[in-house]
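Record format v2
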Amino acid sequence: MQAGAVEGSLADGLDGLAIHRVAVHQATGFIVAQLGVSPEQALLRLRAHAFVEARPVNEVARQVVDGTLRFDGGEGAT
Amino acid sequence: MDNRELWLAQTFVELADTLVDDFDVVDFLSLLAGRCQELLAPSEVGFMLADHGGKLRVLAASSERLRLLELFELQNEEGPCFDCYRTSEPILNLSLDAVARRWPRFTNEARTRGFAMAHALPMRLRGRAIGAVNVLQDHDNPIEELEATLMQTMADVATIGILQERAIRQAALLAEQLEGALNTRIAIEQAKGVLAERLGLDLDEVFGRMRRYARDHNRRLVDVAQEVVTGALASDALGPSGSGTRP
């Protein structure tokens, strides 16, 4: 369980993947609200998009927080 | 700062209240960050805690804006917090003009954001730092000895606050406790994103609303954050939407 809330070694699950960043956590929240999915799903969607675009996850995350990238078909949608 | 005695009295009353109620480490440190900010206005303050891999992570700060949190975060590579954490020694009154060669990336980012001077104080436990407090000033008036002492005291109070959640008997328990505090922060960052999206407000505003809600309903901030993320707590319950700008 990676992007859930407090239980478990949340930090351990993410550490090796270099996505333990403020922007990534905030962006996860934005995507949870945009798609109505769990934090785990939201993080997967974020990482998938970064993979497809061949861009660092943190960079994509910042765009989500800035509002220039949305996952729900609004303006600036993926 | 003018009325230092009044500031001290108010700060300690507030901290004591928070420590004896249902204790939440991020709420506690956010309160502390705000108080430190008043002492050295106008400044921004961040509390950084090292995770089990030795990386400094932001636990609380005086502002929730992403750009500020990232400025604290980048000090995992270079910067006053990086040095302070490794040496367990305070770093005071660093004019950012003077340290550009030592910390090129940090200095560039900090100056872009209008900061002129930086300090870092160790959060100490048994002689070693478990993290660092970063203070960024937008003016270059150096802090005096009394203010430096008060800042170190705040750093020590922060350490006590972090360790309050459970009794410590061995190093293993300490590692768990520190990770627990960091996990709390993750839930809060996610909740900020959910609320910013749903309510159309900026990150400082949504964080303030979560804290107020937690206080008004006598709940821990982290529990409120978790419920925001799972949807158990509707965003509307935290007040009306606005048309604020983010982040």
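The two ends of chain A are 25 Å apart (CA to CA).
Confidence is low (pLDDT under 50) at residues 1-16 of chain A.
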